[in-house]
Write a structure and sequence with these properties.
Layout: H1 2-16, E1 28-30, E2 36-40, E3 43-47, H2 65-159, H3 167-277
Antiparallel strand pairs: 1-2, 2-3
């Protein structure tokens, strides 16, 4: 009866305190390590080796508020890891799109540069010489036509010089030929002016524009090369960051899981002690 009464007096205190800090109200003493020794008849109770056990469960073995916080942290970390893996897949898709766009842009820039170089070569070696020759031919034909017209006019004047019966005809013919010679001289002047403008302004200007198009195409190609390299580096950076984040979260999740498993193990170890402290009436 004495053992039972002492145990019943100690149970309310045990259930209210953690195993690492409880002190039973009974006659006894505390040793140098801070453990309490209580003696009532044949009863001896030692307290002091439950510091880690009490962190995970109370005397009844039920989860504490700290357990709930750890469980929530574990769930949050698992969710964060899942999102990080989704982010990695999105980064891979974005990387594929960026690489495709960079490749297409580079190919387009190379094609435009090739077209610009070809157009410049065509203009310098084919079109420009042809237009110069065409202008020269116009001037030459105009000059030759004038020379012929002058000869014809002189012959007409000589032919009608002694013919007094055809004075009216002579006047008409000479006047017509003289006017045609004037027109031809005016056309020659215009051809010479056009040729001068062609060789002095139009062709040099068009040549400069073609050369400028080549320079712009080369600049665009150089920029496309840089953009492609930049896209590759940015893609590698984003993928490396996403993979590193996943590895970090996996380590953190594993650490939380290990802590949770350790708490469960400690709670299981406390179960026999809890069962020993239960009153006989609370046991099934």
């Amino acid at each position: 009866m004495l053992r039972t009464s002492v145990l019943l007096r100690a149970l309310p205190v045990v259930t209210a305190l953690s195993l690492s800090s409880c002190i039973f109200v009974a006659d006894g003493y505390r040793d140098a390590q801070g453990n309490w020794h209580s003696r009532d008849g044949d009863i001896e109770i030692r307290v002091g080796d439950g510091a880690e056990k009490s962190a995970s469960a109370d005397a009844s073995g039920a989860p504490t508020e700290k357990d709930d916080e750890k469980a929530q942290a574990l769930d949050d970390k698992a969710f964060e890891l899942a999102l990080a893996r989704v982010d990695l897949e999105l980064a891979k898709l974005s990387a594929g799109v960026a690489k495709s766009e960079a490749t297409a842009g580079l190919a387009r820039a190379e094609r435009e540069r090739a077209d610009a170089v070809k157009a410049l070569d065509q203009f310098k070696n084919v079109e420009m010489p042809l237009r110069v020759k065409d202008g020269e031919l116009d001037v030459e034909e105009a000059r030759f036509g004038i020379e012929l017209k002058k000869i014809e006019l002189e012959e007409l004047i000589a032919m009608y010089k002694g013919d007094t019966m055809a004075a009216s005809t002579k006047e008409i013919v000479v006047k017509r030929e003289t006017k045609e010679l004037e027109f031809m001289q005016r056309r020659l002047a215009m051809a010479e002016t056009r040729f001068s403008a062609l060789t002095g302004h139009e062709l040099p200007h068009e040549l400069a524009n073609k050369e400028d198009e080549v320079r712009k195409a080369e600049e665009a190609l150089a920029k496309a090369n840089v953009e492609a390299q930049k896209a590759e580096l940015e893609t590698k950076k984003s993928l490396d960051e996403a993979e590193r984040k996943i590895r970090t979260l996996e380590r953190e999740l594993a650490k939380l899981g290990a802590q949770s498993a350790k708490l469960e193990t400690e709670r299981a170890k406390l179960e026999p002690e809890r069962a020993k402290l239960e009153p006989e009436s609370a046991k099934p």
